[in-house]
Amino acid sequence: MATTTPPDSLESLWSSLSTAHTPELKSAQKLYDRTTDPLTKLRRNIRINSGYGIVFGLGFLALFLYFDFFWVRFFLGILLVGYALSIVYNSYLLRKVLITPAADENIRIRLNLIYYRMKKALQTIEIAALFFYPISLTAGFVMALAEAGKIDKLSTEPVLQWLLVACFVVFVPLCYLLTKLLNKIAFGKEVDRIYTLLQAYDDEEKFV
Predict the structure, then answer these.
(1) According to the model, what pLDDT value does residue 103 have?
(2) Pseudo-torsion of CA 103, 106, 109, 114, nearest 10°?
(3) Strand, coil or helix: what is 149?
(4) Are 195 and 115 in contact (CB under 8 A)?
(5) What is the spatial distance between Cα 144 and Cα 160, in angstroms, rounded to a whole number?
(6) Can you give the pTM of this predicted structure?
(7) Which among 187, 53, 202, 199 is positioned nearest to 132, based on CA atoms?
(8) C-alpha span between 183 and 194 (Å, rounded)
(9) Which residue among 31, 47, 86, 190 is least enclosed by CB atoms within 10 Å?
C-alpha cells in the first residue's frame, strides 16, 4: 500500500530504512549523516530564486507603467513574461520534481530522476539567459534614450547601433557565465550531493 504522507526530509527516510535492516543502504546512510538534506536545500534555494523573480518583476512592472513609449514597453513586456515563466517553472520543480520519496518507493530511481531533471533545468535556465539578456540590455538602452528624449536616434544613428551591438558582444557572455556561476553556487552543490548518494548506492550494489 502506497504511503500517502511522505517523510519531512530524506534524513528521516534514511533513518526509517536503516531500522529495517537493509544492508545495501548502510554506506548511503553514513554519507547522508555527514550532509544536510539536499532536497530541502534545493527547495529553499528555488523559493529564494522565485522571491528575487517577484521583486525584480515588480521593478520592471513599475518601469513598464512609468515609460509611455512603445519600444520600451515592448522589451519590458518580454522581460515580464520571462520572469513569470521563471516563477511558474520554479513552481513546477517544487511540486513535481523535488519531492521527497515515499518510504515504499524505489529511492534510487527517484533520486536518479531528480538528479537528471535538475541538471536539465539548470541547462534550460542558462540557455534561456542567452535570449533574455540581450532583451534586457536593449530595454535598458532604449530606456536611457527615451529618458533623454532621443529614442528615435537609435534607428538613425549608426554609432548608437554599433554601441548596442558592442554591449551584446561584451555583456551577454559575461552575464551567461555569471548565470552558470550562480546556478553552481545555489544549486550545483546540492545536485552533486544527490549524485554522490547515487554513487553510494551503486557501490553498495557491487557488494550485495
Answers:
(1) 62
(2) -10
(3) coil
(4) yes
(5) 12
(6) 0.74
(7) 53
(8) 16
(9) 47
Of 112, 99, 129, whose CA–CA distance to 39 is shortest? 99
- Residue type (1 letter), 187: F
d(CA 39, CA 14): 13
Domain residue spans of the chain:
35-206
Quick count: other Cβ atoms within 10 Å of Cβ 192? Answer: 13
Which residue reads 557501490 in cell numbers?
203
Neighbours of 42 (CB within 10 A): 23
Question: Sign of the C-alpha dihedral, residues 75, 80, 121, 92?
Answer: negative
- The span from the CA of 43 to the CA of 175, in Å, is 24
Give residue 76's identity as a one-letter amino acid code. Answer: L
Alpha helices in the chain (DSSP H): 10-18, 26-33, 38-66, 70-92, 107-147, 158-183, 189-206
Residue ranges of the chain with per-residue pLDDT less than 70? 1-36, 102-105, 203-208
Ramachandran sector of residue 101 (left: φ over 0; alpha: ψ -120 to 50; beta: rest): beta
